[in-house]
Structure formats: C-alpha cells, structure tokens
Design a protein that fits this description.
Elements: E1 4-5, H1 13-18, E2 30-34, E3 37-41, E4 51-55, E5 58-63, E6 69-70, E7 74-78, E8 81-85, E9 95-100, E10 113-118, E11 135-138, E12 143-147, E13 156-161, E14 164-169, E15 173-175, E16 185-189, E17 195-199, E18 206-208, H2 214-230, E19 235-239, H3 246-256, E20 261-266, E21 276-281
Parallel strand pairs: 18-19
Antiparallel strand pairs: 1-7, 2-3, 4-5, 5-6, 7-8, 9-10, 11-12, 11-15, 12-13, 13-14, 16-17, 19-21, 20-21
Helix pairs in contact: 2-3
C-alpha cells in the first residue's frame, strides 16, 4: 500500500526549484522539469510512478497520486516500509520526522503528532522491528525500559520502566542498542579520600536472558538472584521471551530447586505475558 500523509513542514517553491541544479534533464528518458515540478520518464517516454529514482547521491519518490510528480514533504509507504521525503524531495535518513497524526480523533490514539525514526536505509521503525525484551527509550517520557508485549494492530505495545508499565505507540520509541546491565557500578570514597569502584547493592529488579542457552541463562540467573537477595529485593522479573518455550522451561526447573525462591509465575497482561516470569523471593 502506498499513501501520502499530511506532514507538519510545508515545501516552499524556492526549495523545490533549488534541486534543479542537482538533476540532469533528458529529452526522452530521465528527469524532466515541467512547470516547476519534476518527473521521471522511462525509455518509452512514459512517466514513472510509485518508484524511487536516484539523482546524484539522493533518492526521490515519484508519487503516483500526483501523476508521477516528485513527492515532497510526505511519508511514503512502499512495500510495507515507511519512508519520508523532505521539502526538496530527498529521502531522509538517520533522523526523526514529526507528522500530524490523522487518527488523533480516535479515543485509543489521541496523540496530535507521530514521530518516526528514519534509519540509515531510510526506512522507519515498524512493528516487526520490536521484540519482547528489547531495550527502548520512550521519547515522550525520556525514560528507558524494555518491551513487554508485541505491538497490536495499531502499533501500541507495553513498555516496562522499572515499576512503571505504560502503553506506548512504536512511533514514540527508539530502540536502544545497549542492553542494560542489572548491576551498576557506584563510586565509594575510602578513608583517604580515594575513589574506588564497587558493586552496587542497588540491583535492578529485572534480568534479561533473551538469546541465551539454558545453561548460560541458569548460570547468570543464579548469580543475579544472589545479588537480588543481598539487595533485599522481594520480587524480580526474569525476561526469557516466548519462543519454543525451552528457555522458560529450563529457568522454571532451576527456580523450583532454589530454597530462597518463595514462588514464581508467568507474567500477566501488561507484565510481559508468557515471555516473563515473576519471581517472589523469601
């Protein structure tokens, strides 16, 4: 599906005409300017529509809704991917784009604007880019957390930020490359005033074991539970994902044998569902 979405910015005629110097006009094939608008003609002399064409180092979208005119200031949905072209028609990359939310009258989607992060490829994040346990930053709240439910049909998912669980649209999220460590380092001063680093007794109430083998996960979880007990945590979250269920089964078998574990259960809605185990410590 390909469609145009209203964008906050508005293209100026001067900006549009400014790209002329970067393009070459051809008599029968290539870029042609007509009444201040750029089109691209194929070898048979037909206008190309709903395709990307390159000029110099930049890519441009030929908008089929406008008879093949080069698109400007618009979101482009092409083959299930979302792109954005700026006032000069150039595909933008590695930046955030702010657009008007056309569904803002919907009670389930009241936000006035949508934010899209265009990656190096020019593609915006989409629902399939998010997985259980992913580390993300919620832009509107300036908080980081982990994904605890997959996006629904409207692109909303649950993000756990410490004790706070919130429903967030994927356009309000940025995927964080670094996975947060459950242990942080704190600086402590010795009697001589020197600073030394030590293990903090403030341990995160969550451990992420996604992507690990059962043996790796059990070994890391064993150490984590020791630190959690030392930090007097009563409840912790173990993120293992759903997958085939093998990792979850191995973790549960380990937990069942631990004398310091009072109980454990799968997460409920808003907690990560079957992709998370909630552990209560003695």
């Amino acid at each position: 599906m390909r469609k145009q979405t209203k964008v906050v910015a508005v293209a100026s005629a001067a900006a549009l005409l400014a790209i002329g110097g970067a393009m070459t006009s051809f008599a029968a094939q290539g870029w042609v300017e007509e009444d201040g608008t750029w089109y691209y003609y194929d070898k048979d002399g037909n206008r190309v529509e709903n395709e990307w064409k390159k000029s110099g180092d930049n890519w441009y979208w030929l908008n089929g809704d406008e008879g093949g005119a080069m698109g400007t200031d618009m979101l482009v949905e092409d083959d299930d991917d979302t792109y954005y072209v700026d006032a000069n028609g150039v595909m933008v990359t590695n930046t955030w784009v702010k657009v008007v939310n056309e569904d803002q009258d919907d009670d389930d989607d009241p936000a006035e604007y949508r934010y899209y992060y265009m990656q190096n490829s020019g593609k915006a994040y989409k629902a399939s880019d998010f997985h259980l346990g992913d580390s993300v930053k919620v832009l509107s709240m300036n908080l980081t957390g982990t994904v605890h439910s997959l996006p629904d049909t409207k692109g909303n998912l649950m993000v756990q930020m410490g004790i706070l669980s919130s429903k967030v649209h994927i356009s309000d999220l940025e995927i964080v490359d670094e996975k947060p460590a459950y242990l942080k380092k704190t600086a402590a001063r010795t009697s001589k005033g020197k600073v030394k680093m030590g293990k903090s007794l403030s341990v995160s109430p969550e451990i992420n074991l996604l992507g690990k083998t059962v043996d790796e996960a059990v070994s890391e979880l064993d150490k984590y539970l020791d630190d959690a007990l030392l930090s007097h945590l009563s409840t912790v979250r173990v993120v293992h994902g759903k997958g085939t269920g093998a990792l979850r089964k191995g973790i549960h078998e380990f937990l069942r044998r631990q004398k310091h574990v009072k109980s454990y259960r799968l997460g409920e809605f808003g907690e990560g569902d079957a992709g998370v185990t909630i552990v209560e410590l003695k």
